[in-house]
């Protein structure tokens, strides 16, 4: 029951952060969003730092599950077009519905992690099915510096998602195609 309540509160905190920003993230605001009595959030997350840590831990869990689902939805990536399709699917998920709300929270937490080492360590990119699919695709296409190219490609896609989150619209397919072409380039530059 305790972990269920902590998860419910972390999910409510994500919603508060998405709607009100980092300044609006308070124990009382989370209590209200979770429809819990005042003081409930502070009973589970005593400090603001503990609340942020719980929120970021939950965010990473949700992101990892999403990446696993996207990887399972796609066929094995054989062509650049299939990789672009996968990245476009992930970008759409991160720009719409609950994915958009998580993206808003993710970027707020990323900015906060600049000053908080514990948050930064939780947010560091992890191994997951999506990252592994990109790495495997690049390997099968002769890319030798797999870790650097995979990281650069995924970071650039993340930047495009951030840009569209702020400015609106979808990530242009041409931009994704250009990123994949750069990742596949054999001249040593990604």
From TrEMBL:
It holds the Pfam family TetR_C_31. Residues 3-63 form the HTH tetR-type domain. The keyword DNA-binding applies. PROSITE patterns: HTH_TETR_2. SUPFAM superfamilies: Homeodomain-like, Tetracyclin repressor-like, C-terminal domain. Keywords: DNA-binding. It comes from the Bacteria. Residues 26-45 bind DNA. Signal peptide: none annotated. InterPro entries: Homeodomain-like_sf (IPR009057), HTH_TetR (IPR001647), Tet_transcr_reg_TetR-rel_C_sf (IPR036271), TetR_C_31 (IPR041583). This is TetR family transcriptional regulator.
